[in-house]
Amino acid sequence: MMTEQAAAQLTSTALAHTGGSEAGQAAASGSALLDRYQGSLTGVFGTPQAVLVRGSGARVWDVEGNEYLDLLGGIAVNALGHAHPLITSVISSQQATLGHISNLFTSPTQIALAEKLLALAEAPAGSSVFFANSGSEANEAALKAVLRHRKDTAKPRILALEGSFHGRTSGALSLTHKPAYREPFGELIGGVEFLPFNDLAALEGAFENDDVAGFFLEPIQGEAGVLPLDDAYLLRARELTQSCDALLVLDEVQTGIGRTGEWFRHQAVAGGVDRRDVAHTEAEVPARVPDTVVPDLMTLAKGLGSGFPIGALVSFGERASTLMGAGQHGTTFGGNPPATAAALATLHAIESGGVLENVNTVGAYLADRLRAIPEVAEVRQFGLHIGVDLKPIPSAEAPAKDLVTLAREGHGLIINATGGSTLRLAPPLNLTAEEADQAAERLTAACQSLTS
Ligand SMILES: *Cc1c(COP(=O)(O)O)cnc(C)c1O
Fold first, then answer.
1. Using only C-alpha atoms, what is the Rg of the chain?
2. How far is the CA of 172 from the centre of ligand 1 (A)?
3. For 280-335, how does the pLDDT look when each residue is reduced to its tens digit (9 = 90+)?
C-alpha cells in the first residue's frame, strides 16, 4: 500500500503546476502542460498533439478527460493495445524479481526469447539474435555487420531504396532516404546509394559489377505511406545478393511481429512466381531459383515488446551470425530481463490468442469500410498495416494533415499522416470489429467535416 501511495503521489506531482496538491491536479490543463513541455523538452518533435494520461486497449484519454480511439498504436508499437493485463503483470513481476543485470550476465527470459524468435522466423541452424532497445539500434547492429563484410570483401557499395526509413541514429540515418532527415548533418556513412523503388531494371543494373556489400530493404515501406515491394522484386533481390555475396538485410521493424498478418512480412512472399516476370530472358534464369526471401539479417523493434522498448537483430545462419566477433558490438540495456519478459509475453499473447487471424479478418474488414468513404481514393491493406490515400480536395493543400487534427479534435480518433494526402493506420493487433466500425464511422464524419 505504501508503494501504491508513493506512485500516486508521483503522478499527481507531475500533473500539478507547482506541487503535488489535489488542487494542482484538478487545475492541470493540456495547454499549461504543453507550455511546460516547451520550456523543458528539446524541440525536435514540434508541439505534441495532446497530453495523454491513461490508456486501455484501443482507447486513450488526455489530461482533460477526452477519450480517443487510437488507430496509431504508438506508431505500430502497441501490438496488444494499452495496458494489456498480461504484459503489465509480466513486466512488473519480472522487475520485482530480477530487473537489469547487464550483458556480462544472462537470464532465462533472454535465452527463451531468442529461441522463440528463431523458431518463429524459421531460422536455420547457426542463427542467432542480438537484442537492442530500438529499431535504429537494431539497424545499427545490422549496418555494423555489413561494414564488417564490406571490409572483408572490399565490396564498397551499400544499397537502400528511395523512400526508405531505417532510423535516426547516424548509421541508420545514412540508410534513410529523406533528404530533410539526412542533409542537416552533412557527411554520414559513405558508400550508400538509393535505388528507385520497385524498379527491377535498376536492381539488375546495381549488381552488374559485383561490388555490393549489403542491401537494406523494408518489405513494405511504412513511413513512406505503406508501400509494398513486389514479390518479384524481393525474390530477385534475394537472388542477386546471394549470387554476388552481398548481405540482404530486411528491416521488419514496422512489418514484423504480426503487423501484416504473418509473424514476419517476408514469410508472405509467394513462391512459384512466374520467372519471366523476374529475369530478362530465359537464358538468364539461374539454376537455383529461390521461392522464398530468407534474409541474411532481419531487424525488429516496434511491436516486439508491445510498448516496452526492445529491438532485435536476427542473423540467419552461421555465416551471418559470426560477422561480428566477441567484443565487436555491445549494449548496456539491450535484452534485459524486463524487456525480454515483455517481448516473450507479447509473442505468447499473439500466438495463444488467435491474434494473427484477427489481424487478417479485422484488417480486411476495416479496409472495406475505409474504401466506402467517399473522400478515400485508395486503401493499401496488409493485415493491420494500412495506408489510405485521400482524393484531392480543392480547399486543402495537405488534406491528410488537416484530417489528423480534425479527427482528433472533433471526432475522438487518433490517426497519422505520412504525407500530404496519405494516412497510415497501425491499430493494436487485437482491435475488434466493433472498434473498426467505430473508427470507420469517426473517420467518415471527420472526412465530411473536411470537405464541408
Ligand atoms: C520506426 C522504424 C525504425 C526506427 O525505429 P526506432 O525505434 O524509432 O529507432 C526503423 N525502421 C523502420 C522500418 C521503422 O518503421
1. 23
2. 9
3. 444 454 444 567 899 999 999 999 999 999 999 999 999 999 999 999 999 999 99
Query: For ligand 1, is residue 239 a contact (CB within 6 Å)?
Result: no
Q: State pLDDT tens for residues 152-183.
A: 999 999 999 999 999 999 999 999 999 999 99
Neighbours of 369 (CB within 10 A): 19
Any ligand 1 atom below 6 A from CB of 218? yes
Distance separating the N- and C-terminal Cα atoms of the chain: 53
Cα 442 to the center of its chain, rounded Å: 25
Q: Are 285 and 275 in contact (CB under 8 A)?
A: yes
Q: What is the pTM of this model?
A: 0.93
Residue type, 314: V
Give the nearest ligand 1 atom to 309 CA. Answer: 7
> Which ranges of 222-352 would DSSP assign to H, the alpha helix?
231-243, 275-278, 317-321, 337-352
- Separation of CA 309 and ligand 1 centre (Å): 12
DSSP-based three-state secondary structure for 132: strand
Ligand 1 pocket residue status of 136, Cβ below 6 Å: yes
Question: Which DSSP category does 283 fall into?
Answer: G
Q: How many CB atoms lie within 10 A of CB 39?
A: 7
